Amino acid sequence: MSAKLMVGTELAAEMVARAGERAKKLVEETGVQPCLATVLVGDDPASATYVRMKQNRSKKAGIGSRSVVLPAATTTEELVAEIEKLSADPAVHGILLQHPVPAQIDERAAFEAIAPGKDVDGVTMHGFAAMAFGEPGFVSCTPGGILRLLQAYDVPLEGAHAVVIGRSPILGKPAGMLLLASNATVTYTHSKTRDLADIVRTADIVVAAVGRANFVRGDWLKPGAVVIDAGYNEGNVGDVHFEEAAEVAGLITPVPGGVGPMTIALLLEQTVEAAEALTRAVSETVAHQLDHLS
Ligand code: NAP
Predict the structure, then answer these.
(1) Taking the model in full, what pTM does it have?
(2) Which residues are annotated as a binding site for NADP(+)?
C-alpha cells in the first residue's frame, strides 16, 4: 500500500469533544441542553443501528436525545404530523429522519416538515438552497464531513478536478456543490454516465457515493489521486476496492473509520449550533417583548 490513510475517527472525536464543550457551556449559561430528536420508521435493523449509534454519541457529548419510533405501516400524513410536532417543540433543537423510509411514504414531504432551523442533517430544500447559494445554514452531514476531512488533510481544492460518482440529494449532489464552492472543477457522474472509468482517471479527487461494494477499481485512478470512499455496504465494505486503490492513490479514506465518523460528528456539531441559535433567538424575543412593555 503506498497511499496515506485519511482517518476520520480522530478528527471526528475532536469535533465531538468540541461540540460537547459547547453543549456544556450552553447548559451552564442558559439551562438549555441541546436535544436531537431521531425519527425511525419501520424495523430495518441497519437503520435502527445507525439511530442507536447517533443517540449514543449524542449522550457522550452531553446532547439529549428524543426518540420517535413509528411502525412500518405509517402513512406520510402520520409521519409529517409527528415531525411537525417536533418542529414546534421548543425543547427539541435538531431533527433527524432516518433514511430510507418505507416505500409508501413521500420522503420529500416528510423532510420538508422539518423546521429549517432544526434541519441539522441538511435534508430540506431550504438547507440545500442555502448551501447552494453559499448562505448560512446546515449542510448535509456526509458531504460536510467529507469537506472537513479534505481540509484537515490540507488537500488543495482550488483548481483541482473532482469527480463525484453518484448524485443523490443527500450525498453526491451536495458533495459536488461544496467542492465547487471551494473552487474545485467538478464533474458529476451517475448510472447513465458513459466511459466512467476514463472520466475518473482524470480526477485529482474522487468521491465515491454509489452504494455498490468495491465499485471503483485501482486502474480507474490517476496515480496520487485523493480517494474519498463515502460508500458503506454490507460487511463494512466501501464503494472503492480498497486494496487496489491504495496501491495507486496518494490519500484514501478507510471504510470504516473514514467518512462515517465525520458524518456523525457534524450532525452533533450542527445540533449544538442549532440549540445555540434557537436559544439566542428566544432570549432576543423575550428582551424585545420586555422592551416593548417598559
Ligand atoms: P443512492 O441514493 O442510492 O444514490 C446512488 C447514486 O449512485 C445514484 O446517483 C446513482 O445514479 C449512482 N450510481 C448507481 N449505479 C451507478 C453506476 N453503475 N455508475 C455510476 N453511478 C451509479 O445512494 P446514497 O444515499 O447517495 O449513498 C451512496 C453510498 O453512500 C451508499 O453506500 C451509502 O450506504 C453510503 N452512505 C454513507 C454515509 C456515511 O455516513 N458514511 C451516509 C449516507 C450514505 P442515478 O442517479 O443515475 O441512479
Answers:
(1) 0.95
(2) 166-168
Residues 150 and 253 grouped into a single domain? yes
Residue 68: CATH number of its domain: 3.40.50.10860
Amino acid symbol at 275 = A
Domain identity same for 250 and 161: yes
Instruction: Tell me the C-alpha distance between 36 and 183, whole Å.
Output: 33
Read off the C-alpha cell for 285.
424575543
- 188 close to ligand 1 (CB < 6 Angstrom): no
Distances (CA, A) of 176 to 87, 146, 173, 231, 251: 29, 11, 5, 15, 19
Kind plus residue range of the DSSP H or E element containing 228: strand 226-229
Parent domain of 162: 141-259
Atom of ligand 1 nearest to the CA of 263: 40
Which positions are annotated as active-site residues? 54, 98, 121
pLDDT tens for the chain, residues 1 to 294: 899 999 999 999 999 999 999 999 999 999 999 999 999 999 999 899 999 999 999 999 999 999 999 999 999 999 999 999 999 999 999 999 999 999 999 999 999 999 999 999 999 999 999 999 999 999 999 999 999 999 999 999 999 999 999 999 999 999 999 999 999 999 999 999 999 999 999 999 999 999 999 999 999 999 999 999 999 999 999 999 999 999 999 999 999 999 999 999 999 999 999 999 999 988 888 888 888 887
